[in-house]
Write a structure and sequence with these properties.
The chain is an alpha+beta fold. The protein is built from 7 helices and 7 strands. This is Nitroreductase. Belongs to the nitroreductase family.
């Protein structure tokens, strides 16, 4: 499965089969976490066979079942932390999909279980990602149109529209899709793309933007553009 295929196949899943992740899968995930933590200056941690985080009242409200494996999404407090969490966390979400796993971004419906994770000085947890073998593959949700979230037109490059289409398949908090993409122009033979978050009473728009930006990059492909 390619990353583009993973984008199209992936949906949020909260109910999992009661079986551990295979050793091979764990190895791939842990190796990637090391690389992404270094690249994104984060402290993401894979927690295995730990059922307590998703057994509280909020987790039951969120309809989680057998969510015994998860990724703690943490890093040093910073203005751009949430966006980096979204961007690099979605690397793991799509990787998991290619490995035959299912996932769900979790902002509130979890409990922090003491002793299961480590936090360095001035670090905080932004959210969790549940991960496992889903009972189902989840379901798709209604999404906005390309025109509602971008300035794609007959004069913008075709890859720009493909990038926006991929971004529209990105998971966002309660499917709010409060982001937009703008093709600004060309500078020094490189296309200039601006991604912006919108306002939301729910929050998580910075994290959502990071997730959507990674989807855009995959959909757009290997083209010469810069984020501005």
């Amino acid at each position: 499965m390619t990353l583009q295929e993973a984008i199209e196949a992936r949906h949020s899943v909260r109910a999992y089969k009661n079986e551990p992740l295979t050793e091979d899968v764990v190895k791939v995930l842990e190796e990637q976490i090391v690389l992404l933590n270094r690249e994104g200056n984060l402290h993401m941690q894979l927690i295995l066979n730990e059922p307590k985080a998703f057994q509280g009242t909020m987790a039951k409200y969120g309809k989680f079942r057998n969510a015994n494996n998860y990724i703690v999404m943490a890093g040093k407090k910073a203005e751009d932390l949430d966006e980096r969490i979204g961007y690099y966390g979605e690397h793991l979400v799509l990787l998991a999909q290619t490995l035959g796993l299912n996932t769900c971004w979790v902002g509130l419906s979890y409990s922090k279980v003491a002793g299961t994770y480590e936090l360095g000085e001035d670090e905080k947890i932004a959210c969790y990602i549940s991960i496992g073998y889903g009972e189902t593959q989840g379901v798709s949700h209604k999404i906005k149109t390309v025109e509602q979230v971008s300035n794609a037109s007959d004069i913008t490059p075709s890859w720009f529209k493909k990038g926006v289409e991929a971004a529209l398949l990105a998971p966002t908090a309660v499917n709010q899709q409060k982001f937009s993409f703008e093709h600004v122009g060309v500078k020094n033979n490189r296309h200039q793309i601006r991604a912006k978050k919108g306002f939301s009473m729910i929050g998580y728009t910075k994290m959502d933007l990071g997730i959507a930006r990674y989807h855009f990059e995959i959909g757009a492909g290997e083209v010469n553009f810069d984020w501005v």
